[in-house]
Design a protein that fits this description.
Structural class: alpha+beta
CATH superfamily of the largest domain: Jelly Rolls
Order of helices and strands: HHHHHEEEHEEEEEEH
Number of strands: 9
Helix content: 25-40%
Strand order of the largest sheet: 1-2-3-9-4-7
Low-confidence stretches: none
CATH class of the largest domain: Mainly Beta
Strand content: 25-35%
Length: about 200
């Protein structure tokens, strides 16, 4: 298990890569904040490494830069093109805020058409009873519950998914989720890129 100092250092390294790519490609801070759906102040904190990142923030940065998300996280370009095997619990870890731990299941495979994860949503009574934080990103998403239960909200519709349940949706629609039922929830999440025809 990684210590706090190691995670802080990883966040700083990601921040340096975000800053470097923005400067290299000639994007302004305002442009990046708009793309990522955050305020200019929030973006500056992320780029300076003084706050952690959500999955959506990292995904949108990588899409804007035209690079692989795992390259933004690790600094290494994916090299595999035929297949990649990930043993249980050995995915590329992405531990981020809001109580969600991600393990990327294809971080070393280049030119991916989707981003597959095992996600652990930590249970919090306050989160379950409070307002669910919403996000959006291009493409579609598929979530399949492995254990526990997940309270989801998609475009104003709220439901609870249990073990064996799944949901497929347009991730450009505001959506959010939290663990429910008093325990952590683990699920498979597959984030799919938009079709080229959808971008036109």
């Amino acid at each position: 298990m990684k210590g706090v100092s190691t995670m802080v250092e990883e966040v700083k390294q990601i921040a340096q890569r975000i800053y470097g790519m923005r400067i290299l490609l000639g994007f302004t801070e305002e442009e990046m904040a708009d793309v990522c759906g955050v305020t200019l102040e929030e973006y500056r904190k992320c780029e300076s490494g003084t706050c952690d990142y959500s999955f959506t923030f990292l995904l949108k940065c990588a899409q804007k830069f035209g690079i692989d998300m795992s390259e933004l996280i690790t600094g290494d370009m994916p090299k595999l093109s035929q297949f990649t095997i990930v043993r249980r619990g050995r995915g590329l870890p992405i531990k981020r805020r809001q109580g969600f731990d991600y393990q990327h299941l294809a971080g070393h495979f280049k030119k991916r058409m989707s981003e597959p994860f095992v996600v652990t949503a930590k249970y919090s009574k306050a989160d379950e009873e409070g307002e669910i934080a919403m996000s959006t990103h291009e493409g579609q998403e598929f979530d399949y519950i492995l254990s526990g239960s997940l309270k989801i909200q998609i475009d104003g519709h709220t439901d609870v998914l249990y073990e064996g349940d799944s949901v497929f949706y347009d991730s450009g629609i505001p959506h959010g989720m939290v663990a429910s039922g008093g325990k952590d929830c683990q699920f498979i999440a597959v984030v799919m890129k938009p079709l080229e025809t959808d971008k036109k």
